[in-house]
Design goal:
Blueprint (H helix, E strand, L loop, with lengths): L9 E3 L5 H8 L6 E3 L7 H5 L6 H9 L3 E6 L5 E2 L7 E6 H14 L6 H8 L14 H7 E10 L26 E9 L3 E3 L7 E8 L1 E7 L4 H4 L30 H4 L1 E6 L3 E4 L4 E6 L3 E8 L2 H5 L5 H20 L4 H9 L26 H7 L8 H16 L38 H8 L2 H14 L1 H10 L3 H15 L4 H12 L5 H28 L14
Parallel strand pairs: 1-2, 4-8
Antiparallel strand pairs: 2-12, 3-5, 3-6, 6-7, 7-14, 8-13, 9-12, 9-14, 10-11, 10-13
Helix pairs in contact: 3-4, 10-19, 13-14, 13-15, 14-17, 15-16, 15-17, 17-19
């Protein structure tokens, strides 16, 4: 599991104070289990299904009609509306299902169950179909039945149960959005999803197993499209995952944490955390929803700005991923670029691969010229590889001879013909970009100055015709790293020499900028797919159906 220690599930045997919860738990936005948190509730003893709890609930709310979740994919209940429907159900009917299981087990082969099969008690689907006995019992889940609804009191179908429930002391001062009942007769599995509120899940009777993923794991969970009815749900089915359709899902377990909750326990699930819940037979739970301080303090007129900032940050992270560069190390690479050793920059050639004489100024180097003999062998090898790769990707009218380590070339034979540019977006796909990416800043400077002096047409072809989007991003990042290690005057002279090989310098700049923007656009589209479930260039993501 790759979750950092700060995101680990912590278990507390002592109930925190409101201040402790707010400052040490809620503010960290990481899950927490509070053992025995609800054992003092009236509901903990009165709703206990092994001690007359079903009879108590029958007396209290048996006459109520509640909204039940009906799914033909049971015991798996998917959140997408295409996979289930809400049906009105007398609570007494549901409690009857629970009593059957409690008394006779889950096979339903008893006279009472058989009688219930013959005489259905008012469970009718939106399509007018009657569901009876064994069939309906296993397809029903009382999910999110309101006990308290802050937005609409009339929606609170089980309000009379409120007196059996105590709001935990550490939620003091929170503005609760809802308190809901969750109850199942047979074993159930709810699909992977997140909530737009902080959530405290309290187990009254039975047990649940909860798997959690941090919001940062969103991309491996394939969220349904943001514009959809079930945008907070994962598109990945709970059973028989097709990894050819969901290849990133292979990494799901690396981010997941699992916790088992028993009667009396409570689990804090921060907003945005994906969770998937398995419930045992006849499990009763209550949850509290409230808005986080962060969401409460967000000003509506700032939404567009927040959106742009967040999308930019996610796009930058995706660009680093496409370059196989951890986000946390990018700044270090730039900062360490002028160091005396490559020990802290794995994958970069040492500074000694630069021109032999570091005492010459850039102006003196330019006046002296850049002979291939002045390059160290490794830098020369990189130059040779770059020229060869560029020529491999283009049509040549006349062949250009191989670079020899013992020759000094003042010009370049042959002419490069315009070709269609490559469209590589990932570093591992582009051999030219890989060579450039491996160059330490001083070696990068010397290789490209030597290339501009000895092979100007190849450099021109590289930029105008063989530069991929990822190559443009790599090249400009190398420019930035080099700029950190040399003075302004040396930098100015480098760019004068570099762009001097182009008949139209603006065309070269356009090629670099267009490549960078194409790379960034692909990263942005990847973010839309991975985090919002929106593919602007392809078919809509698959939705789990019955």
């Amino acid at each position: 599991m790759s979750s950092s220690s700060s995101l680990q599930i912590h278990r507390f045997s002592k109930i925190p104070s409101p201040e402790e919860f707010a400052t040490q738990i809620e503010s960290k936005n990481a899950p927490a289990v509070f053992t025995g948190c609800v054992k003092e509730w009236k509901a903990f003893s009165k709703w206990n299904v092994l001690n007359g709890g079903l009879d108590y609930l029958m007396d209290m709310v048996g006459s109520s009609v509640v909204g039940a979740m009906l799914s033909k994919s049971a015991p798996v209940f998917y959140g997408d509306i295409r996979s289930h429907e809400r049906v009105p159900l007398p609570f007494s009917t549901f409690l009857g299902y629970c009593k059957d299981i409690l008394q006779y087990g889950d096979d339903g082969n008893d006279s009472i169950s058989q009688l219930r099969k013959q005489k259905p008690e008012g469970l009718v689907t939106d399509h007018g179909d009657h569901l009876v006995g064994e069939e309906s019992r296993k397809q029903i889940y009382l999910a999110q039945v309101p006990i308290v609804n802050a937005e609409n009191d009339e929606m609170a179908q089980l309000e009379c149960l409120r007196e059996d429930i105590e709001t935990p002391g550490f939620l003091e001062g929170k503005v609760l959005a809802a308190i809901n009942l969750w109850m199942n007769s047979s074993r159930t599995r709810s699909s992977t999803h997140y909530d737009p509120h902080h959530n405290l899940l309290c187990i009254i009777s039975g047990h649940k197993q909860v798997v959690l993923w941090p919001p940062s794991a969103c991309s491996v969970l394939y969220p349904l499209p943001l514009y959809g009815e079930a945008s907070n749900h994962s598109a990945i089915p709970l059973e028989n995952i097709n990894f050819s359709l969901y290849p990133r899902a292979k990494s799901m377990d690396e981010y997941s944490q699992k916790v088992t909750l028993h009667a009396g326990d409570a689990l804090f699930i921060p907003e945005g955390w994906f969770h998937q819940v398995d419930s045992g037979d006849i499990t009763i739970a209550v949850n509290f929803w409230w808005q986080s301080d962060m969401m409460s303090s967000m000003l509506e007129h700032m939404d567009a700005y927040y959106l742009r900032r967040l999308m930019k940050r996610l796009t930058d992270k995706e660009m680093n991923r496409m370059l196989c560069t951890p986000s946390t190390t990018v700044d270090k690479e730039v900062a360490n670029a002028s160091g005396q050793s490559s020990n802290g920059n794995a994958g970069y050639f040492d500074q000694d691969l630069d021109l032999n004489d570091h005492t010459l100024s850039m102006k003196e180097k330019l006046e002296q010229g850049f002979s291939l003999n002045d390059l160290q062998p490794e830098a020369l090898r990189c130059l040779n590889e770059l020229v060869s790769l560029v020529h491999h990707q283009i049509d040549q009218i006349q062949p250009v001879g191989d670079i020899q380590t013992d020759c000094s070339v003042s010009g370049e034979e042959g002419k490069i013909e315009k070709i269609v540019k490559t469209k590589f977006f990932n570093l591992e796909e582009d051999p030219i970009a890989n060579v450039v990416w491996s160059l330490e800043p001083h070696a990068f400077q010397s290789v490209f100055l030597t290339m501009a002096h000895n092979f100007p047409r190849t450099l021109e072809a590289f930029i105008l015709h063989a530069l991929s989007p990822v190559g443009a991003e790599v090249l400009t990042r190398k420019f930035e790293q080099m700029d950190q290690t040399i003075g302004a005057d040396d930098g100015s002279q480098f760019y004068q020499k570099f762009y001097s090989v182009f008949d139209d310098q603006f065309a070269a700049m356009d090629a670099l900028l267009n490549g960078k923007e194409s790379f960034a656009s692909q990263a942005f589209n990847n973010v839309l797919v991975q985090y919002l479930g929106i593919n602007v260039n392809g078919p809509k993501p698959l939705v789990q159906k019955d």
